[in-house]
Amino acid sequence: MKNVVHIPYKKDSIISFLPKSSTCASQQVELRFTRWEARLSLSAIYTHRIVCYLSSNISYEMEKECMDKPKSVYIIIFNGFTALSLCIVAQLLAIVHNTAPFFSLSRLGINFLVAYPVAVGVGMFFPAERFGTAFCRILHLPQGPFWGVGMNVSINLVFTAVLSCVMTFFNVVLLGHQGTKAFFSSFLVDFFPMLLCSCVVSALVRKLSLSISEKITCYFNL
Predict the structure, then answer these.
(1) Looking at residues 27-34, what average pLDDT do you find?
(2) Would you tell me how many other CB atoms lie within 10 Å of the CB of residue 144?
(3) What is the pLDDT of residues 124-151, one digit of tens each?
(4) What is the C-alpha separation between 16 and 8, in angstroms, rounded?
């Protein structure tokens, strides 16, 4: 069994445990981190924890996971959460970009009524599992947390592109009476924040949506 040395640490360093080699078993081992090295190490640790947490809600067999219950029930519930979150983020982005004066619940309701049917339609007809699997294999992602994150990002990439396009057209062109240039500008500026929101929310509400859909199907004997 290898001997283990506990390295004392200060406020700007991290706890480290290093094995002694057979040639320096009697020597005192010191490990000093500069401030930026300590922060970099802690950032790597927390990033790994975040990736593992988000991917823990994403299964490689996530489509098969809900095949024992009506898929439509799960999609209706799951896409309700994601569509609502994207509508909220879209309106907040409009306030940040000074294209909306304040947060409006009526505007949120109108956007949700447009976005929700589109989200459900994409969920019903988009082959999410096959697309996500192909995406992960093209990038040669290993099985585990990174595979789950790859599935999540690839699926939400398509979902966000469709939903963001519809919502931008509805708000900028139909309601705002602006042209094609304003449409593409708004779409490109808001796409990444919308994608990030979709990825995080979908990872967080997946298990909740499965649980709710299971209770509904059992209650109504669907």
Answers:
(1) 45
(2) 12
(3) 888 887 888 888 889 888 888 888 888 8
(4) 8
